Amino acid sequence: MIQRKIIDDLLRLLNHFPAVGIIGPRQCGKTTLAKAIMSKIERPCIYLDLELFSDASKLEEPELFFQNNKDKCIVLDEIQHRPELFLLLRSVIDQDRIPARFIILGSASPVIMRNTSESLAGRIAYKELYPFNLMEVNARDDMKTHWLRGGYPGSFLNPEDEMAETWLDSFITTYIERDLPFLGLNA
């Protein structure tokens, strides 16, 4: 894993806020970063990928799940798939307002920003994660590689130039077809 520049900021925020949101575009490394942070938090952590049925099913009774795991940091990945959780998170946080109760991950979509700004104001701090920047990859590679491949891990870290280009082309196509309409933009 390439050391991300914002990891220290995230750990500092987790010492003060009950919830920390890591937002950013798909495939920029949010999940990898969250899993790295989990190993640095002093309390036990639970990671739930809300796109996996097995993880999503654990939240069939979310209030009970949060209550039974209030001593843990709960990471909710792809939270934009469960917008109804935002109001519940507000209530759960207010019942026991301790730092690092939740880490939420998701795209920087209007859904997340609207739902959390309405319900979690004063309870959550955000950090936006971008693809690798040149300072993060400087020790590993040169500026030319970063320039040609971009900073997305799937392209930048690929050992083959041709596959790196294929990954980037596929990502761009998927982004235009899937994510821009989700964000309310016409492709």
3D structure, described in words:
The protein is an alpha/beta fold and 187 residues long. It contains ten helices and five strands. The chain has helices spanning 7-14, 30-38, 53-57, 62-68, 85-95, 110-119, 134-137, 143-149, 153-156, 161-182, and strands at residues 19-23, 45-49, 73-77, 102-106, 124-128. It has a five-stranded parallel beta sheet with strand order 2-3-4-1-5, with helices on one face. α5 (85-95) links the parallel β3 and β4 (102-106). The longest helix is centred in the last third of the chain and has 22 residues, at 161-182.
Brief descriptors of the model:
187 residues; alpha/beta; 5 strands; 47% helix; globular
- Given the structure, what is the number of helices? 10
Tally the beta strands: 5
Terminal CA distance reads: 33 Å
Q: Output the structural class.
A: alpha/beta
Rounded to an integer in angstroms, the radius of gyration calculated over CA atoms is: 17 Å
What order do the helices and strands follow? HEHEHHEHEHEHHHH
Strands in their spatial order, largest beta sheet = 2-3-4-1-5
Largest sheet: 5 strands, parallel
Beta-strand residue percentage: 5-15%
* Quaternary structure: single chain
- The dominant shape is globular
